Amino acid sequence: MTFNPNELILERIRSVEEYDPATNELVGRYTQIEEPSLKTSAEAQDVTDAMGSTVATFYKAQKGTFDFSNSYFSLDLAASQYGTEKVLASEDNKIIMPVSETITIASDHTAVLKYVPVGTAGAEVKYVKVINENNTFGDTYEVSATAGDGKFTIDAATKTITLPEGVSGRVFVNYERETTNAAQVTKKTDRTPKIKTLLIHAIFHDICNANIVYAGVIRCPRAQIDPSSTEVALSPDGKHAASYILQKDYCDEDGSLFDIIISED
What we know:
Oligomer: single chain
Mean pLDDT: 93
Number of strands: 18
Strand content: over 45%
Radius of gyration: 29 Å
Shape: elongated
């Protein structure tokens, strides 16, 4: 008998996959999907008579949107939203990372950094601030090739800062370091999200027998993340939301926005 489903229970969207439409290469996959929503819209154009009565209404500029929130912050999704790529550090491609430290000054007036600082030789750290006993900032010291009043010296190789005699307590230091174990996503103002092909994988159940499970896929040939408003919640309970604009391929006569495919096997 021909498989002819109608009313089904949609259990959940189990994943959203992004593909490069030119190469069909997988470029992003998100598995913690919340509040997914698929919408379509069109612009109405009324045809009226001399009295202003509507004779007919035609619809044009049909498009769709697909929205969801990922339960976790996703670097891949952020890269897709910003129209860039996630960069992975390596021995041949080190990433420069800012570091801020609060260090206890030793009895010999030195403070040892956690990492080797990078930057202008002899001035890898430009300024440091002493922290007072009441946790406020005290005097500021500037790097110098030689010790002196209001100055400090730095030996980047040994990660050591030497402050003038008499300086004690704690010091706040900001600097940059190289790392081979990091990932970086950069938002640039001259880039917009690339057009992707989406596969939205869903799980359905038969309404008469919930033990019967069907696999479903919503295929969106041309989807582009809406860059007009992108928000990343910077909190543990925040969600990573995304909104895709679905449009037909201008050069495709078929002009489909998406397909909903449900399989019995």
